[in-house]
Amino acid sequence: MNKESVTSVTPQAAQTSSRVWRLGDQIDTDALAPGAYMKFGIDVIAKHTLESLRPEFASEVQAGDVIVAGEGFGVGSSREQAAGVLVHLGVKAVIAPSFSGLFYRNAFNLGLLLLTCTRADEIQEGMRVQVLSSGVQIEGGALLSVKPVPDFLLEMVRAKGLLNVLKARIASGQLHTRPQD
Amino acid sequence: MKTPQTLAQKVIAKAARRPSVEVGELLNCQVDLAMFHDSSGPRRLAPMLDELGAQIWDKNKVVLVLDHYVPAKDEESSAIVQLARDTAKRWKLPHVIDSEGICHVVLPERGHLRPGMFCVGGDSHSPTGGAFGSYMFGVGATEMLGVVVTGEIWLEVPQTLALNWEGSLSAGVCAKDMMLHMIAKLGLNGGRYQALEFTGSAVQSLGMQERMTLSNMGAEMGAQAALVAADQVTVDYLLQTGVAPEALEDWREWRSDTGAATELHKFDARTLAPQIAAPHSPALTKAVTEYAATPIDIAYIGACTGAKLVDLRAAASVLKNQRVHPKTRLMVAPASARDQEVARQEGTLQVLIDAGAQILPNSCGACAGYGATFEEGMTVMSSTARNFKARMGPPSVQVYLGSPFSVAAAAIKGQIADVREMLS
Question: pTM for the whole thing?
């Protein structure tokens, strides 16, 4: 890990462990944000998150829970609501051996932490994990290492998304934009 | 000495104002063109731009396409479409394409893409633009906000996967079959968010819209971009769209250097059978013989992937003087109004209508799953790109993917069939 640690993103992580929702391979954006509800706002779409796979997810997930999934999490559409619903529902992080590249960008742009972990398959439903600077600690089990996340993406997680990063850069004079007419 | 560069690296280097780039570098790139649509565009961007008190960095470099929620089917869709139109006026956008076709098809059709351009699109099938030798990739709405405010976007210089096809395709086999086959071999995320470059004699012999089908489904392979080096086919197409000849003078530069490092995958066009992807993943692809005789209720020709003029012609070549099976419905949603008009003038559209096809609006339709979807329990043979569970209807809907040839064959037989046995 580089010096910009994961714990600096989620300061409470060291004290609290998270419930795990275990999902399979290739969880797609239609499963996360079903197309039929895309015409609505994020609060409505979020009620249908994963309903074709885990109908109880949206009503039972609690703030601070984590999702652990298989290969290719987030494949499919560019709709960032697929990441937005997880932020809306309070999911702290998604841990998977690989992500869709497009979803990866969208998640960080909305402030959602994704951790690439080759040993994610050792984490099962019902386990509890802690997201630490050194990796993902299975409660009573192994410490799994994760791929380092570049600093500028961690900054987006801390700021809760790119919109806030842009706001701060404009406010501090680092970024000059065309003002509205 | 700079390292030999792939086509992808060359376009990225130009956008990053660098002589060359190395795989793995994190760079900021200047965006030549940003495209967004009614779903990903104004309704998401406008509130955020207002919050920043900023406006679009360069309106001439932005194209808005209304294709996802048109024609509006309900109150909410109608509000989204109206918001897009009102915002286009408020922003004084010079390039708006409203209800005239799907973004990835109308963008090049209107001459917005050229070899060597660095482009982003607010839609996952944005790699389609790579067929023209531009580096184009999909982004979400918030990332698009960053682009329209700064004119820039970051990327990690990708490796290039060279997907090489030699030989000639059999009659009834086309780009869609090539792509489904590659996705089956490499996997749904087998592109690992790197760049694809399609090469070889079988690719060079494809027309522009067939090349677009290859690049389009780079999205299903999980690639960031999916390119084809420009050649005379590209130049001829772009000249015909009205691109000025002087804007194409550098087209020969936009190809990979000899000796540029790629991960090479070789395929043989001669032995490729029509390919069918079973529910619920494009990666569940096998030769048509493996799924033959699966009964279908609906044959669907639609989307940027599978309803361009070339796709309508493919379907018509099978459906000529034939009737759709009595237990099957054939639905055709031509990907652009211009393609539909050419199809009408040359008689292709009439062949489809005479066979029993229902012609639907020039929009994303059932493929996006945003409104007009299939009913409970239907089994669908579709020329679209994606068959994820619950995408094109309720979870009970079973969607098989194939080429427009294969969809036409299934429409006639009422079941999945090998089109090679049906072409005289």
Answer: 0.96
